[in-house]
């Protein structure tokens, strides 16, 4: 764990069976009912320095993931999920078994 992060990405409980990994961490920072449409710029301003555990060996910042996102705004939760998931898979931030089958979907 690097001292560069404002907090431990896994918290005191660890990664809860991997539920605090990758895409789930990004989605848990927003309220599906109240935060949309969601500005990518505002999201990064609020959470850019937050850590996201990609694998058991790799932690990156929210800002690093968003460097690969072209969208400026997300209309709803589904669009946010799809856009972030695609960017993560295409740029090596998604290490789940079978992820490659969704890249061209």
Descriptive notes:
This protein is α+β, with helices and mostly antiparallel strands and 105 residues long. The protein has one domain. The protein is 31% helix and 10% strand. It has four helices and four strands, in the order αβαββαβα. The strands form two sheets. The protein has a two-stranded antiparallel ribbon. Strands 2-3 form a two-stranded antiparallel sheet. The protein is globular and about 35 Å long. 16% of the residues are buried. The mean pLDDT is 79.
How would the blueprint of this fold be written?
Elements: H1 22-27, E1 38-39, H2 40-47, E2 51-53, E3 59-61, H3 62-66, E4 73-74, H4 77-90
Antiparallel strand pairs: 1-4, 2-3
